[in-house]
Amino acid sequence: TQPLIEVKDLKKYFPITGGVFQRTVGHVKAVDGVSFSLNKGEALGLVGESGCGKSTTGRTVLRLLEKSGGSVHFKGTDLHSLNKKDLRAMRPKIQLVFQDPYSSLNPRIKVGEAIGEALVDHGIVSRSEVRDRVKEILSICGLAPYHIDRYPHEFSGGQRQRIGIARSLILKPEFMVLDEPVSALDVSIQAQIINLLTDLQEQNDLTYLFISHDLSVVEHLCNRVGVMYLGSMVEMASRDELFSNPLHPYTKALLSAVPVPDPTKKPERIVLQGDIPSPANPPSGCKFHTRCPFAKDICKQQIPEYKDAGSNHYVACHFAGEF
Ligand code: SF4
Ligand code: MG
To answer: What pTM was estimated for this model as a whole?
Structure first.
């Protein structure tokens, strides 16, 4: 069957300008050849440290940013070759939820209007029906319908994220990119939002790309996990496989930093040396070699191939699983 989303060798480069004429002097390769596909109803977690290109990947997949190379197909349609009108018609189906919905809510507009405006803009329902639809979506997202006439500042962080989710969900999307949707929230509130997202996914057969720097959040929601480092995917596997049998040293390092309830099951701690190198000037060969405790000479020279190590477990390391 056809995947719902198919991303092939996706690239997003940002120009670096310099000199008096502001000429392009180089590029930041924020996303440098990322591939994955998602079947309907799947949730793929995309993890990595900040600056690794997760958010840029999400935005380029949705064509909120123009690609520099590669392709994105949604149900067989090449999103990056649609004209403006066709892309706009596609928008309700492919939605983004931000980390901080407050920053995208106008403080002077009642949340009911903010949630309903896209419905009217897209001509999905008439003005007279909007209020009923908004009340319905509010209660689906766990907010009492009387909140419809309140202003953004009257809500807590968790409630605002419910509003952010409601605003996307009301358009009946099929694919949602969730960019750090719980990172700004307290742990107990995080769990509530994760549960809401899980319920919504089951009820609506939604497909998620869930971006997070926090592996423990991803573990609850995602059936597959991809790990990014400096613009590249370094490992991807089913959740259970990735958590029980990580093959890339970077994944092992991320996992060893996650708190576990049973300390006897804790993997050996791998501490990364140094900072993330600049994506404008990434290291040669394996981009992780400057921080990898297992790096050998070949790692500085040769880019490791991203390949299937068996049972759809993809990894890019010359010595995958050897340590
Ligand atoms: Fe480490 Fe070398 Fe593997 Fe890169 S290729 S992760 S440097 S062992
Ligand atoms: Mg980000």
So the answer is: 0.94
